[in-house]
Design goal:
heterodimer; A: mainly alpha; two-stranded antiparallel sheet; 6% strand; B: rod-shaped
């Protein structure tokens, strides 16, 4: 919590707001914490100081914390995996390599279990998804005020450390998966085949508008459900950590410890579900016909 | 919680990292794993083969040992037979030699006997002739009776 007295509702809202960098238009009225109003004389690129400002920045704004953390975590992940890849030999594996091989064999066996097509991209993508989402979710286990406190001391108005509680991040990844589904469906089945799959199924051909509507919803539901499932789980977990953090400090551990332990399961499970569903969708995209 | 350009950024990063993983992380490790699997399989197969070969070799060595024993006992038996033969031969040769020597000795003795008898016979004849000469010198002419005397001498 920041040093000034704030209400519980403010605390919660503060924790759920991303650090947003964007453009405020000329004539925009900025209201600071003390209630002073400042009217901008020209278009200004700046960090949003309130949730309203972040909203008013519109689409052309960046959640600096989400982007920064997800980039940092991906670099962290691939720094170690690349290091292990350079170490990889046929000899006896040790330390880091051992761990990385264990992860890769786990991913490889689950991809082999659900992906029947032939595509060298799917298994590395599964590894990227699992490792990256796991690390992003893992940020949830860092005590909730540590990093925001440091950021606040550095003068940043907001700082959300769990990228997967930002729908931009989860939708960003699920849209990438969706694009891959469209790409491989078209590539493997041909545009006609892909259309036929959407239009001539499950009802007879003359009912193709109904088929198209049904299958279209089914297709769109894939990225939406992927993104919302991950976002919902992580967001809810984050909210519960925030609520626990509102309790008196001497009793917090009674709830936060069990929840954190349970959360270890959730973060792993959510990463695994995202990965497995992506692999299954890829498998469906690679299947010639029903 | 606004949808903004972060979405696009995340999508781009996703593709970037998938590409990186596909290019620089996944293949070396998976190849190393496959190569190690192959190596272990080869090692196990070689071990199995070695064991098999050891079994064969020990079997072969047992056979060779057995053969050698059989051959050795054969050689010993042959040698014994040969030695017995040699001893027999030597015995026979010795006996023959002995017999021969005895026969020679006997022949010599007989020859000597014959020679002595002859000499004795000559002496007796000479003696008889001398006695008869002495007798006849008084009575008869030696020449007239020589024929008779020779006939007696032949009969002896």
């Amino acid at each position: 919590m920041s040093s000034e007295m704030i209400t519980s509702s403010e605390y919660i809202k503060h924790h759920l707001q991303n650090l947003t960098y964007g453009k405020l238009p000329a004539g925009y009225e900025r209201v600071d914490h003390e209630g002073h109003t400042e009217v901008l004389t020209q278009d200004t690129w700046t960090l949003a100081h309130t949730a309203a400002e972040a909203r008013d920045m519109g689409f052309m704004a960046v959640n600096v914390d989400s982007m920064g953390w997800s980039l940092f975590l991906a670099l962290f992940l691939f720094f170690f995996f690349r290091k292990a890849a350079k170490m990889a030999t046929t000899g006896v594996p040790t330390g880091l390599l051992n761990f990385v091989e264990w992860v890769i064999e786990f991913i490889d066996s689950s991809v082999r279990g659900s992906f029947t097509g032939k595509n060298d991209m799917v298994a590395p993508m599964a590894l990227t998804i699992f490792g990256w989402i796991f690390l992003m979710n893992f940020m949830d286990l860092i005590p909730i005020d540590y990093l925001p406190f440091v950021a606040h001391s550095a003068g940043l108005p907001f700082f959300k450390v769990v990228p997967s509680t930002d729908p931009n991040v989860t939708f960003g990844m699920s849209i990438a998966v969706f694009l891959l589904i469209l790409y491989y469906s078209t590539k493997v089945k041909g545009p006609g085949g892909f259309f036929a799959e959407l239009a001539f199924h499950p009802f007879p051909k003359w009912m193709f508008p109904v088929n198209l509507a049904l299958e279209g919803v089914g297709l769109l539901a894939k990225p939406v459900s992927l993104a919302l499932r991950l976002f919902g789980n992580m967001y809810a977990g984050e909210v519960i950590f925030i609520l626990i953090a509102l309790m008196p400090f001497w009793i917090q551990w009674v709830l936060s410890l069990p929840w954190a332990i349970f959360h270890i399961l959730i973060i792993t499970l959510q990463a695994f579900i995202f990965m497995t569903l992506t692999v299954v969708y890829m498998d469906m995209a690679h299947q010639e016909s029903h | 919680m606004n949808i903004n350009v972060t979405l696009v950024g995340q999508t781009i990063m996703f593709f970037m990292f998938v590409w990186f993983c596909m290019k620089f992380v996944w293949p070396p490790i998976v190849n190393a794993l496959a190569a190690r699997k192959q190596l272990i399989a080869d090692g196990l197969a070689a071990g199995e083969r070695g064991k098999h070969e050891l079994e064969l070799a020990s079997k072969r060595s047992a056979e060779v040992l057995h053969d050698a024993k059989v051959k050795a006992s054969e050689i010993i038996a042959q040698a014994e037979k040969r030695s017995a033969q040699i001893v027999d031969e030597a015995k026979n040769a010795a006996k023959e030699e002995g017999d021969r020597m005895i026969a020679a000795a006997k022949a010599e003795v007989e020859q000597e006997l014959f020679r002595v008898k002859e000499a004795l016979r000559q002496q007796v004849a000479d003696l008889a002739v001398a006695g008869a000469e002495k007798i006849l010198r008084r009575e008869v002419d030696a020449k007239a009776h020589a024929e008779l005397l020779t006939a007696i001498k032949e009969q002896l």
